[in-house]
Structures are given as C-alpha cells and as structure tokens.
C-alpha cells in the first residue's frame, strides 16, 4: 500500500493505476508492504531504487547505512509495537533533498501519528529532512512509551514473584492454589513471563541501536541539507535515544534479577520435595531395622514364646517411626 504526503497533508496519488504519474508536491512517500507496481511508480518518479525486504533485512552496517548518488539509504529493524505479535521487521528510509521514501512491512502507530500531525499543522514537514525528523521523533516516543508499559508490567511481575508464598496455607487440599501441582504451574507461568519480557527488551534494544546509528549517520552526511533549526533536533534525538537506552538497560537488569528470583523459588520448591523424601526415607529406617531383627529365623529368641511378643514388636516398630518424626518436628524440619 502506498500513501503520499505533502507539507500540508495527504496527497491523492491516482489509486493503483500503474500508469498514473505521482504528484510533484508529494514530499513523503510511505510504502507499506509495496507491490512491484507501486515500487516501479516510485522509482520512476524519484529515481530512487526501492530496496526489497531481503535487502532491508541485511545486518551489516555497510548495507544498512549507505550514501549513494541520489541520497541516503537507511534501514533498521523495528519492533511491531503489537504485544500479541511482538517481533522485529525491517524499516527503510530513502532520503534525498526532495523526497523521503519509507519502506515498511507492518502497521506502525508512529506513522499514523505523523500523518495526523502534518494534517493538523502540528509538525513542520516542509522539507524531506524535517519530515524524516518527524517520523524518527515519533518512533523514539513510541519506543519510550513501550518501555514505560514494560516497566509497569515488570513491577506487577515483581509483586507476583515476591508475594508468591504470601497466601500459602498448611494442609493444602487437592485443587487448592497452594497445592504442589498448582505451585508448579504458577512458577512455570512466572518463568515464561520473565522470558517473554527479556525477549521483548532485546528487540527494543535492537530498534534503539538501529535508530541511534541512523541519526548519527544522517547528521554527518546531511550537513549541507540541514537548516539551523534542524541540527539541534538531531542532537536532541541522540540524547533522547541515549536516555531511553539507559532506561532499557535498567529494565534488562530488572528482568535478570526477576529471573534469578524465579529460579530461586523453583530451587526452594525442589529442596522442599527432596526434604520430604529424605525425612520419609530416614523415618523408615528404624522400623525396617526392628522388623529385620525380629524376622531372623533363629531357634532361641526370648520373645518367640512370649504371649505379648507380637504386640510388643508392633509397638516397637511404631515407636521407632514416631520418634524420628517428633525429632524432625522439634528441629523445624517439618
């Protein structure tokens, strides 16, 4: 899909007719998953070769940041901002003195926000570089908002982790929220949630790194195109990205801390299980010893002809099992 925008708002572009010429006052050409016909129309109008998705996805810096005869070719991975399908997709900028061409493959609210700002006269998009700055500024704002949302999610997740045992009650029944199976499921969910946040932050970090490189490269290569009011905006953007990157670093440290805490809870649960098994095995040793002793087939055993020998043996087995339990209870192991 192709949309055109001038300094004052949206521009009609003749629908999907491949033979229709693009308007001269189209300053920003936005291509969202463009067809071959749309790419050909833009190339014919601007003289700029539209890169494919594979070309925009290349990871080496020389492919992502290039100066060619017509202007700058820039690309970066960008998060989808869709929490249900949080992924990285390529985003390309083709910047010349007369045009800004953006190539993307997913919907982004930042682009809709820039279009609205230009339509409402809230943003200065009278040149290609100013339009470029509007788009990048909105992307940076969106990334900052996304990190703020993640910060709130991590606060809630932290509460769930460190209050994990606050509702525990002794003698839990089957189906109770504190039953072993429920606790195991809850810990699995916590671990998955921490992992998802870690993956999301890594993708946000990749987007921030790509934008930081684009800003620095564009500022250095477009000195002759920048006005006196545009150069400080590049410096402001660089500062904003640096501060957001620091915030993302702190969130990543929080994720690592929560991961360690969750693994600690899992380790405690495993230790509890092993402790129960250990106590059971120790409690079973004395009764086994007593039963083994009186199970020996010797001819002369004093208790063999005793009328109370059998009750005596049972009582001795019971006492030998209860005494270790009382000892462990007194020590606080149970």
Automatic annotation (TrEMBL):
It is found in: Membrane. It comes from the Bacteria. The chain crosses the membrane at residues 276-296, 308-328. Its main location: membrane. It is a multi-pass membrane protein. Keywords: Membrane, Transmembrane, Transmembrane helix. InterPro entries: CorA_cytoplasmic_dom (IPR045861), CorA_MIT (IPR050829), CorA_TM1_TM2 (IPR045863), MgTranspt_CorA/ZnTranspt_ZntB (IPR002523). PANTHER family: MAGNESIUM TRANSPORT PROTEIN CORA. Belongs to the CorA metal ion transporter (MIT) (TC 1.A.35) family. This is Magnesium transport protein CorA. It comes from Methylorubrum aminovorans. The gene is corA_1.
